Fold this protein.
Amino acid sequence: ETGVTQSPTHLIKTRGQQVTLRCSSQSGHNTVSWYQQALGQGPQFIFQYYREEENGRGNFPPRFSGLQFPNYSSELNVNALELDDSALYLCASSPPGPGDEQYFGPGTRLTVT
Amino acid sequence: AQSVTQLGSHVSVSEGALVLLRCNYSSSVPPYLFWYVQYPNQGLQLLLKYTTGATLVKGINGFEAEFKKSETSFHLTKPSAHMSDAAEYFCAVSHMGRRALTFGSGTRLQVQP
């Protein structure tokens, strides 16, 4: 069984640019969540997608947006990149049913210069 | 609003010694509780979870945690530390069905030979 995969592994962008990060959920999982983990901190919830619709959002500005596709894969888009957007971006998928456990991918390390 | 406090950003133990990582939460409704481990340059791996039922939860790699409602705690323990346990550990909470995790700031565990 393939776990959650993310691409790319690393990315370097310039302030003001736009970036798209990709996530493939674990087989059978229909909910995808995105988290931002700054260096030395715990992950912060960005938003969650269920059935291709946003299903909850954390305290992040609208320039953070996302998509979920019919195969449950997902994208995170960030516009007008700022230096503080430099972080590890983690995608997590969840199976149907109760429990709330999430299974994380290896993350994408984004550096904004 | 829910929050998670992990006491001690760094914990150092000797190989073979007891591991105790502390987690306290605040939540206005019964929470689901989780412990995750993160090895360097990797995503988060689920160690164990508490949803309902038995308050002592056993997880992978010999770890266990006890949910104490009166103390709003969910401390993680392992009777005997192994060198391979050296990693960052995160406690997280969610409200039933919301599937958005709130993480603590993490505890880095060092295991001395």
